[in-house]
């Protein structure tokens, strides 16, 4: 705990109150940060994207989780796998796929008309894809813990399906939904990969940290930006812990797991919705695979496996890949 959490935070806090020479300057760096219009702009962009993606993902994932847990549609197992598949991909993957699809030389660029995928649109689309499985897993778990006795009581009182949804389904899933929104918001505002690849000139706090530290070697301002980004993430983490404690109290040993009954119209709509969402997921993943096999995009689209011959196309060969697996193994 001290080595992996306290010490890095202490180092970042210490650096934020020092100048380039390592001298203590108090809150001067923070004052300089908040006096910069460009940094305020990045802060606004970060929260704008965070709120937008969180709202969209919350709605999309709730609908998908509802279909998996509240319908009798076929192929639930397949849709569960497809819905959570993006969690295995790094955030860079959807950004790269979107460039292949809608970039300046993208195969579907015409679908955007005069709009450019580079900027807020690309960041939002990439992060929606990347955070969707995280939201889906939380919501699916939350909705599967609903008590069937509540639905039996609603049927006994002849409550309409719409009222049952708002009086039983939503209240039972509210803590899971809140937890989902918090997790997604935290992931969005702290992600670096998508904004760096497809963000263009749309600056956010995560890319500002990179520019300050790597581009300008200004570790003090990088630490200041990191602390400012850490604050909302810490608040979100604290709120999520509280929500999780509330969620546990909703399902006890006397509760009866809910089992949906067949309903042709509802099941058909759920199947259609999950099919559309799964096609979108497969399109992004498939585009990434296709792009990796293209000889030289977009001039030579002949397929080849030479791109995977890291020993020839990279100075370090397979070493970065091995290092990544090694670090992942030790971290796990």
From TrEMBL:
One of its GO terms (biological process) is transmembrane transport. Coiled coil: none annotated. InterPro entries: MetI-like, MetI-like_sf. SUPFAM superfamilies: MetI-like (SSF161098). Keywords: Membrane, Transmembrane, Transmembrane helix, Transport. It is a multi-pass membrane protein. It is found in: Cell membrane. Pfam families: BPD_transp_1. One of its GO terms (cellular component) is plasma membrane. This is Ferric iron ABC transporter permease protein.
